[in-house]
Amino acid sequence: MSKNKEYIEKYAEYAMEQMRRYGIPASVTLAQGICESASGQSELSRKGNNHFGIKATSSWIQNGGKYLVYTDDRPNEKFCQYASVGDSYEHHSRFLKENSRYAACFNLSPDDYKGWTEGIAQAGYATGSDYAGKLQKIIEQNGLQEYDRQVMQEMKEQGRCFGLEENPLGETENAAYSFPVKRKDFLFVTTPFGVESRSSDSGEKVHKGMDIRCNDDSVLATENGGKVISVKGSGAGQSVTVEYSRKDGSKVQCSYLHLSDIAVKVGDVVNASQKLGVSGNTGTRTTGEHLHFGVKSVSADGSKRDMDPAAYLAEIGQKGNIKLQALHNGNDLLAKYKSNAPQEQKVSSEDWMKKILSSEDSGVGISGTNDPILDMAMTTFMSLMMLAAQIDSNDEERQKGLISAMAANRLVDLTSLVPGMRQCTITVGENGKTVLHAESGTVKIDRELTSSEMNRLSLILGNANLSEESKRTKIAGMVTGIVATQQASQNFEQGMEAESQQQNLQRK
Q: Do 434 and 381 touch, CB atoms closer than 8 A?
């Protein structure tokens, strides 16, 4: 994804909110943000959340406004520094609204981006040539007009008026706090903090972090005013560590491991929601793409201890009013650290399966596709997962653990169902492609299931009159038949090849 696209995805809602409040086209605000902040990569935006290049006036400073010193048109100029990106967007709108030079713009329609860009340029917002043309190019190349249309339609349907500051700001940003990756519902934790079951030469191994399922995600700073103290590559792959100071002299260090890309350097000051890098699978001891998020508490005397990241996330979640959960096998890891947290209801294996498969982390959607073939594949996959979990254990907590692993890998292990098979699994891709992987010792197949085979699977699994045992027997027979057919086909092809080689030798 390009830097412009990343920026738009992250801040489009901010611009739309400003359009509702002040009548400034969201497209224009976004285009200016991209242009003035280098898509959020400029020094002013990274260190001071200043996305519009607004300079600090004497009144700003006299009123207690913070500022950064930066060389722009002239050496050592003072620029506004904000607590959050949201504050920068709000100040940009007020800057235009309260400055008489831009008064004519507010007589234009909120979706007249050409008129607005020309008016802003003529009023002298920037010293560069063809500023209006540059903004219009950004708008048109990225389709930013669509955000203007969305807001216009929304305001019309709701009977609301533009340009009212009473139009509320949404919860697009908790100014001072963020979770390490952005999610709509919950973080899918594959391995929590504590003792792992994996054996090692030294016996039990303590897992000193929280593994969060990711897929090429931006990893984010969690608080304002953090300092990057480490950027390196090691056995854990590429990693970043950010340190946050506390009033009592103690510190908190947050580490991000297995990254595929790093966007900061040692010494950088970062703020909540600022991109530090991209999740990945780098390192020598990885188990698929995820973010290993570790937290250390550093006392005033310098002594360190590993702490449960769930405790830290619960703390900043409460401070920042972040509603996300961190779920491991259906259980919220943050709940025990939250004050006055309501008693959690126990989640069944089936409910956890539905929740995780419908999440953005599983890579497998189960509904709303409007594609009957894909919907059937997802439904079949769900049923196979539940069947495989029940085969392995009657204990519900263990079943939920198995479901988590299957969802994370998009793979159902049916080996125990099929006698004589060394390995037998079914995987479902993001496009609904269902593939059987089987190895008997004499034959190995990797083949996409046909529509008729998928339909047969679906009929077996969806038959309420069949017992679970009968379903297992029928599926085992079906898989054995597919493998036998494939083996016969391979034997025939090998026989024909051998016969052809023999005939060639005889001709010689």
A: yes
